[in-house]
Each structure stands twice: as C-alpha cells, then as structure tokens.
C-alpha cells in the first residue's frame, strides 16, 4: 500500500502539502540538531572570541551552519526521488564542498584563496551541468545577449559576489538569517509560479532551517552564530536562486518577468549588495586601504553606533529590504534601466531614513 502511494504520488498535484512537508522536515531536523551542536561547541571550546570588531562581549558557538546544512541535505535526499534528481544532486554536491570549506574555516583558518577557489568550483558545477546562467543583460545599457564564455564568466562573478556579500552582513544577531529568510520565501513563490517545484522545494527547505536557526541566534542564553559554514551554504543558495530565476525568465519570452528579472533579483538582495558596494568604496577611496580589510563601517555597525539594539537593527534592515522588494514588484511597468535606477535611488533613501529619525529623536 505504501509503495503504491509513493508510486502514484505527484508533488505537482499537491504543491501546498508538499511544500509544508519540506518546510516542516527541514525545520525539525535543524531544530533537533542545534542542541547537540551547542553542547559539542561548548565542551570542545569551539567558540567565537570577541575582538575589536565584535559587537558581542561573550564567547559564542559558531557552528550554526551545520544545522542549516543538515536540514537542507535531509530534505533534498528524501524528496529527490520525486523531483529533478540531476539538479538536486548537483546542488547537494556544491553545498557539500562549501560546507566543508566553511567548517574548516570555523574550526581553524582557511585562506581566502582556497575559499575563492571552492566557490568557483561549486558554482561551475551548476553552470556547466545545468547550463543555468545569466545569458544576457536584458537590454541594460542596450546590452542583450552575451557570448557564451562571457555569460559563464559573468555568472561566476555573480556567484562569488553574492556569496561574499552575504557573508559580510553577518554582523549582528539575526540579520543574515532574516535577510535570507525573506529572500528565500519570495523565491519559493517565484519558483512555484514558474512551475519549478525542485527549486521551490530547496527554497522552502532553506526557510525551515533558517527559522530553526534564528530561534537560537536571537537567544540570550543559548546563542549560536551560523559561522562561515552557514554563510557559505546560505550565500551560495541565494546566488543559485538568483541566477536560476533570472535564467528561467530570460529564456522564456512569455515569462511574467521576462524583462524585469534582473531588477527584481537585485531588489531581493539589495541590502547585502548595496552594503558591499558601499563598504568597498569607503575602504578604497576614503581610507585608501584594501577592500578586503575588515572594519566596522557596515550599515549594521552604523545602526548599533547610533543606539539601535541588535533586534531593532535586524527588524529595520530586513523590513526595509522587504519594502524595497514590494516597490520593485510594483514598478515593473518601467523599462529595466529605469527600474534599476529607481531601485538605487529609493533603496538608498529608505536606508538613510532610520538615521535621520534617530538624530531627530536625540535632539535636546
């Protein structure tokens, strides 16, 4: 009877129950894994030690990425028989590579060069074997279709950019997890609308694992960070979702967001991308130092310096990013160049407003 049920079950005809099961399974696996991770981290002293850049004063476990990874892998393994096995296996392979690179960096130290090479290898797996890449600029600056090798090179650049931009925003409680949760939730909807249940399943599984993680990331007594293990895994998936969304819209002229996909993808990840661009500009042109030299000039650092708590900083930044996405989806009647220009304008203004409010509130 069970075998007959499995043979006849079609996820496409049961999308909502399917996504609920994937979400619940990922959440449950991660939720049950984190207490063990906390125990091992404390017993073996695998902690983040506060330094001059830290906004925390206590030693905190940094292996939250393990729970996120396990939640994702278990879901993809169990549901793989019902979905696009090729895509799922490639994603699992790429995530495993990045997982172990991130784990080594959390436990010891991994050179930036090795992390960069690992990111390129993981991204190349998806690009080469699924041909999922950004095939053009959708007429941005009058550039449409890119030559194949230029397309591959640009897609690799986008992968590396998003992975590392995401890693850079992991600076205050809940911020990186909340940004990823919002983006993954919206990607789930977009993939369902595009009839790609495999990608929708991965995206909703990431939501489940992230909610389980955020419960402890916000905790005062059982706090855990996602570490490089988590930021590499989650950042890679966000990059994969972004490129997959742009690709599926660009190859189908009848797609809902055929011309709008680049602007919408940019809006979904506006905060990490904008903050990275801003921080690199400050380091290169203001401080005249290496763009990779760590400092406390990120936007979330500025929020803390202006008196906002960790929770307030996360809620405001994530809330603004959601508002940016809502505006972006309501400006699709603009041509793509104007969508991106408007996004840069209203996105920047929205992130400046909290500083103005705080300054006004502190006036005598």
TrEMBL record:
Provide this UniProt record's keywords sorted from A to Z. Cell membrane, Membrane, Transferase, Transmembrane, Transmembrane helix
- Topology relative to the membrane: Multi-pass membrane protein
Tell me, in one coarse class, where this protein mainly resides. membrane
Q: Name one GO molecular function term.
A: transferase activity
Q: Which domain of life is it from?
A: Bacteria
- Bilayer-crossing residues are 15-41, 62-81, 87-104, 116-136, 148-168, 175-192, 198-218, 230-248, 263-286, 307-334, 340-357
Instruction: Tell me the compartments it is located in.
Output: Cell membrane
PROSITE patterns hit by this protein: MRAY_2 (PS01348)
Q: What is this protein called?
A: Undecaprenyl/decaprenyl-phosphate alpha-N-acetylglucosaminyl 1-phosphate transferase
Which species does the entry assign this protein to?
Answer: Winogradskyella pelagia
Q: Upper taxonomic classification of the species?
A: Bacteria, Pseudomonadati, Bacteroidota, Flavobacteriia, Flavobacteriales
